Amino acid sequence: MIRAALIGNPNVGKTEIFNHLTGLSQSVGNFPGVTVEKKAGRLVHKGQEIEVVDLPGTYSLTSNAVDELVARDYIVLERPDVIVDIVDGTNLERNLYLTLLLLEMDANLVVALNRWDMVKARGLKIDPEKLSELLGCPVVPTVAVTGKGLDDLTNSIVNAAGRMNTKGKNAIQYENDIELLIKKVEDVIRESPAFIEKYPQRWLAIRMLEGDERVMEQTRAALSSPQIARILSIIEAGEAAMK
Amino acid sequence: MSANKKLTELKPGEKGRVVAISSCGSLRRRMMDMGLVTGSEVKLIRLAPAGDPIEVLLRGYSLALRKKEAMNVTLEVE
């Protein structure tokens, strides 16, 4: 069975796509300890069973808001086979921020370029093939309300599940001084084998440099106190150098 | 000639480029997540009756900001 998760900014048509894919047969489940629900449903496509999880709508993946954290923890800890990032084609610039965050997490991504009818109607020009090339993942134009493109989307999900993860090769490159800090933190992280399987290292390093409390908490157990101290001193030195 | 103004000093229809956001912590992060970063163009669309909140056009979409959040955004205005 393929495990796919739907994610995207609020109000981009995620649940519409979810309902189309699963034929409204979703069951509602709760994440423990939070009030935000995730919905799960199943479909069979060309004999292949796919479980689809509808994550809360989110603009970002910081640890400051519960809904963002639900989405982020699901992606990082549950590691679904495919992440379907639903993007509002009429508001591409803002939506792509989340796409880049997902690429940074080494997510096995398929982008659904939704509201494709509105994109056309407004005379916006988007080249899905070029976008796919730049992001390094499939981009499928869809119209959630009519179900157009959803067959292509399902095909892309199945194909993506069967291919090796591209390991975030198209994720953002930061400026040299930042990249150097990321490398240094990554070097410390890499000493701890517990992380290598579980988390994308570059993503962990970047979150640590951001001072993400959740990541610090989650990693405390797997790092020795000298290692934590080294990471903190790298962060401190980096901040001092940038002032 | 360009001058720096607070976002709250703009009149409806006026626009500028973000030069600084003086909020901190998760509020600053949230504003940046929404695309309000140094260099982005912001246009004031309208104010609510009491002048709070305000509606701005940013990256092709409308964003509503509380006045006290908008006070922390400094723009370069032509």
Provide structural commentary.
The complex is a heterodimer of chains A (243) and B (78). Chain A has helices at 14-22, 66-78, 92-104, 116-121, 128-135, 150-161, 176-190, 193-198, 201-209, 213-220, 225-242; strands at 2-8, 27-30, 37-45, 48-54, 82-88, 109-114, 139-141. The termini of chain A are far apart. Chain A contains eleven helices and seven strands. In chain A, β3 and β4 (48-54) form a beta hairpin. Chain A folds into two domains: 2-161, P-loop containing nucleotide triphosphate hydrolases (Rossmann fold, 3-Layer(aba) Sandwich), CATH 3.40.50.300; 176-242, Helix Hairpins. Chain A is 48% helix and 18% strand. Chain A has a seven-stranded mixed sheet with strand order 2-3-4-1-5-6-7, sandwiched between helices. By secondary structure, chain A is an alpha/beta fold. Chain B has 78 residues and is of the alpha+beta class. Chain B has one domain: SH3 type barrels, CATH 2.30.30. Chain B has helices spanning 25-33, 67-70; strands at 3-6, 15-21, 41-47, 54-58, 61-65, 73-77. In chain B, strands 1-6-2-3-4-5 form a six-stranded antiparallel sheet. The termini of chain B are close together. The mean pLDDT of chain B is 92.
How are the strands of the largest sheet of chain A arranged?
A: 2-3-4-1-5-6-7
Number of H- or I-type helical stretches of chain A = 11
Any idea what the radius of gyration of chain A is?
19 Å
Low-confidence stretches of chain A: 26-35
Task: Report how far apart the termini of chain B are.
Answer: 6 Å
Explain briefly what this protein structure is:
The complex is a heterodimer of chains A (243) and B (78). Chain A contains 11 helices and 7 strands.
